[in-house]
Description:
By secondary structure, this protein is α+β, with helices and mostly antiparallel strands. Helices cover 46% and strands 13% of the residues.
Amino acid sequence: MVKIESYEARGVVRWRVDLALAVDGTFRRARRQGFASEKEAKTWARRAELRFLEGQVMEPTPRPAASKREDRTDPREWTFLRVWEECERYWATRKAPTTCAAYASRWRVHLARFGGQVFGRMPQRTLDAIAACPAAPTFAAILKTCPKIGVTPPPGIWDPPPIKKSARLEYLEPDEARRVLAVLSPKYRRVFLFLLGTGCRVGEALGLQWGDLDFPNRLIHIERALCPRTRKMRLPKGKKTRVLPMSRLAEESFTGLHRGPATGLVFSDVGQCGFREELRNAGPRAGLTKNIHPHLARHTAASLQVQAGIPLEMVCALLGHSSLKVTQIYSHMAPKHMAAGVAAVDDLICL
């Protein structure tokens, strides 16, 4: 019997092999994991089976001999690679899988080349090089985690350039949103309509279950989100659950759907990759030059709420932001209130 299956390790998909067979009345078994691809795992399994049939004994998987001795080294002498590995273990149970995967990608591309340097004695030129590369936010997360894993950060000055953010926030005007909805297929139109009516994140929409909908009281409970990469449920971003009023747009998005069990997914036939691809193609079909993507519906809902005069505190609660500071990016969308401030000066100075 040969069993080959995939698993996830530090945000990377790996493969493991479990081989068991009887040779001349003797039971033989070999297991190994860490293969980068299914093809590599199958090749190893075939070779292992041939060795069993030839009467050879499989050698156990070698393990690093100095692992225990390394664990007792002074954290002040840890290399950057060792600090990264400890941070990965710390983040594994505390951060979202997508965040860990993004950190790991930036490490491989930008930071791994500094892995051999002693972290506590990193020279200033290394800190400056990291500050100027796209992995600066990842290194900032490492510095923030250092006190929690008992590591002293480098003594140099960490001064990355500020991230430039444009005050212009892209969103859909009501007419543009209607044009996009008109060209979407029914199953994707329902999800986009729900996102517009609630301002939810796409993972929260795809993780919505029928038991989360309270039709008598017209409430929607946002208690989980579907991770697009692992296809597993997790808490919403920031681990903040919330209750939203059921708008007419949200209620319309459920039209035509067969109500399943309480734990069944509302939008069970929609995948995030297909949804994103459908929206990308919907822009040109609707005659729009804007980049249409799922998160644009969230920006649209928030922008239109602020333009309608809804207080930022209420918009913050509806969107599930961690603080009002995050919601401030929509504050410039209230032109009427800002125009009143300008008009007050006009009345005093204009002749």
